[in-house]
Structures
1.
Amino acid sequence: MTKKIFTSLTIFFPFYNDEGTVEIQIKNAFEIGKKLTDDLEVIALHGGLSSDNTWNKIIEVKKKYPELKIVDKRENKEGYAVIKHGFSSSTKDYVFYTDGDYQYHLEEDLEPLAKKMIENGADVANGYKRRRSDNIIRIFLGKGYSYFSKYVFEIPIKDTDCDFRIIKKSFLDKIELKCVNASILPEMIKKLQIQGAKFVEMPVSHYARIYGKSNYSATSLLLEKLVGDVKLYLYMRNLKVIEDKLRVIRFGLVGLLSLIIQLFVFNFLILNFSINPTISAFLSDQIPIFMSFYINSVFTFKFYNLGLNIETLKKFVKYYLIVITSTFIQALVVLIGTLIFGSSLVVANIFLVMGLIAAFLWNYLVQSRLVWKKMK
């Protein structure tokens, strides 16, 4: 038997005024989904009080697919933010969702996206539109917003608004989505990025509607996004301040642990093997360097995708050079201090502490920018 791509998979669609596309989306979800996994869950999320017959169509299609799971949010007042209920209702290891209007085709792009995700060891696989099949105003405003959101939130993907994505459920469980409007998309991507999710992208096709029209006008959607994004930016900025403070504390704790281990190894080498103190100092520094590299990656900077590959080796080389440089900075501070104020034990210790602080700041600031900046 051919091994399936996913251990288990949820596919869900938010349906709102989508009577004409309910059946084809659900049909494709079951047909394509069963090629990808032996443990499939398909969810029809009714995302508002539709003006057409969407709800009854979902009930009708369930008769053909009894295993279809229905989430009824006809009372929804949060617009596209209703997708949060799709995520919370999903129970499988991987979650795929796309719009219910059939502008993205599962039968064409879902399997290639799934393969790309697994091949790259990604936590989030996102499509980006090859060509947008909308009117010129929507294309222009959509393109402008894409650049705006990417710049403001430093989002790691090309097309925030391309709702054709697969996300590991374990990462969805780490975040809480607060937005009550279309700004939920940059919020979700940014929070997944903060959690250390690795992203992968591929182009997907985008087609003209075969039924109905958009629930938003181009300008009303842009206005909702801009107002929502301002609120989101202020909220995320506060989160970032808190996270930065916590990160410095975590970095300091790792540094303290490294110092304790270094002191232990230093004395162990001298007392048990009579190794020269200078050589012992160098040797005792190597174990904490390797250890702190790994702990900082996971504990401090939440870089969960560390593996034995070229990218990790590059990061470690940068890390090692930064740490070695910090040792020289510390020694330089002590040297300058003792040359100016004398080499008494008190002066030496005062400048040793100052050197440790300077080395700590150097390590944190440079590592966070050169080693751990791109958490993808």
2.
Amino acid sequence: MAKRLASYLLCLSLIASLAYGTGRFVRDEITSPSLEGNRLGDPATREITIYLPPSYDESPGKRYPVLYLLHGFGGDNDSFVRGVGETLALMLLDGLMGGGVIPEMIIVMPDASNSFGGSFYTNSELIGDYEDYIVRDVVGYVDSGYRTIPDREHRVIMGASMGGYGAMKLGVKHPDLFRAVVSLCAPLDFDVNRQWFIDRVIEENPGGKLTGPGEGKTFTNFLYAMAAAFSPNLNNPPFFVDLPIELPGGRIREEVWRRWEEHNIGTMLERDPDRFRALDGIYLDVGDDDELGLTPVVLSFHERLLALGIDHEFFMFEGGHSDEPVDRFIRAMEFVGKVLAEPSPVAPRASLPVLWGGVKASIISPSSSSSPRRTPRL
């Protein structure tokens, strides 16, 4: 697979360089009103990594569609470039565009990191308003400073892991801004693997007490970061969050869990599937052996979309959470290319009203309590 993929990329990059030239990455900076004054003291001024396509400099009158690419937990604006290397990343993007797989586009990679490791692209009185940061500040800044086609027909949002959650959440909450969503290996329904997740937290805290995030406590770190986004409590030092579970034992605190359900995409799908129908396309993937417990989560979400008759594409690959990144990216970008190549069948409309909330009638929890088999790579 690696040799075949390398040859494919080489051919595409040669076509691109001969016919179109090469694109480039730029590092820009934005000061976000939505993040100013956050209680964590995290910076409101953030770097944005932006890919400009091969013809951008030579065709000053041309405008381009935009892909917003959201990073995962522990990442930042350079996660994609750093993950595959800048040279390979340029070869990949130039090749896909030069080879006609996707149209030329601008790709925007914002930084949504914070002191807890990840913002989950959510507005919170503790961490700042990361949803508004993306949909207002970043989109507005890019449209005003770069030659975009500034409408929803020419915007797609994509992400992996935490970024896949963010892409789906922002896409379905703002169908007036984003035409389609690509969500890769994402926690799309907190209920499906809830008990499995709690068991992992218990294993990481053998003393029977939650004392905060820490080195080597992957699932505990997720817990606190999600609580900072979904259930902040400025009157509860030292971490200023309400946790949805108690140790020892892992008892659910139902009043806090209801607050988490306000941010659960699975609940949103159950209560208002028309949000998802308002998109022109949805793409999901997951590994068949995801060490973060997301295989049953994404499978369940895929099956529910099928049951509701919501058109989407789904791909299951062999491996874990971060395996086969280049092959998966190419597949996802082929989907993006197909969406942007067709006129929208969905009439533009204003944002749908927020109807999130409530606790699901039944909880589906995998019975397995086995430990993860590999070190997570986020």
3.
Amino acid sequence: MKIDCLPSNPYMTVRPVDPISGAAPESPPEYDFLLRGVLLTNPGSHPITIERLELDVMADGQELYSRCYRGLGLDERLRRAQSDFQGIQGSIEKFVFGCPRPFESSAAIFEATIAPGQVCPILFEHFRLPSSIAPQALAVRCGTASGDIVHEIGITAPSPRNRYRFPLADTSFIMNALDNTYVLSHRRLQSQEFALDIMQLTPEFSLHSGSGLNGDYPSYGKPVLAASDGVVVISHATMPENAGDMSHMLAEEQVEQLYLEQGELASMLGNHVIIEHAHGEHTLYVHLKTDCVTVKRGDRVVAGQPIGRLGNSGFSGGPHLHFALMDGPDLVRAQGIPCVFDELVDVTLRRPIARPLECGWLVRGNGGS
């Protein structure tokens, strides 16, 4: 039996009890990380039956937390993995696992008995645990009739190496962030795990006024700002926009034609910009307004410089800015990094924010009103 984990080094966030200021908590903080897949491969010539799958979170050789699947629990976990797999098949699959089609080399099955040459994937294991000790590793233990096979990977809590400012100037609403663990969450995409969906609200605190067309959204067309000094490595500006919310999406045949004309990435992201910063960090700005991107590949930008306007292009259910910080420019192989912004304030509590943002927060960026 061979065990692989995707990713091989999961990135972890630390959520203090005081979620806004990041002040030292009186009780243990919460550690959060996502394992996209445990791949159990049978490289031999005889079937192997999994009797137990155990995942142990470790620190300094000590077990902090253990999760075990066996019997009916293992059967149910495999059924859930099959459902997850069916839901991501297609072009999105490689973005989920950070490598092109990890199951191409051999057939994937979702049963406790693995035939020779087949892979049994256990998908999307989410860990969220309070602890006074920071986790350092995850040990995956697969029990079979011939003994246990153990595979250990490291867990790290990365911090940005550069300083970043918020990419919108006005008071903004965080619609989607790292604490959303549902099916459509960014966290299932390796490079977008800590991405944000940002928009603004009407004076009545609703997403839009009127019928849901682009012009009904208060943030539509607002300037999008470079988060830090850097060099533009990707710029795309010609993707047509959806007319508004989910009821105004482009027709399927239009999307298929745009896929052929402008490529897979543009059909998903719409108009977008990727900027390279110091230390190999990259920021991504997605769903920008058509023909309103003001920078091109090779341009040098400074923090706060307008690079485009907030729009509704690509796979988008309404005008908003999708923003991500990554450790590389390749959306398939890069890993997302939790981003902390300079001089960002929680509007409701009137306090500075010193940690990654969460869903539902109202924030004001640098120079915002």
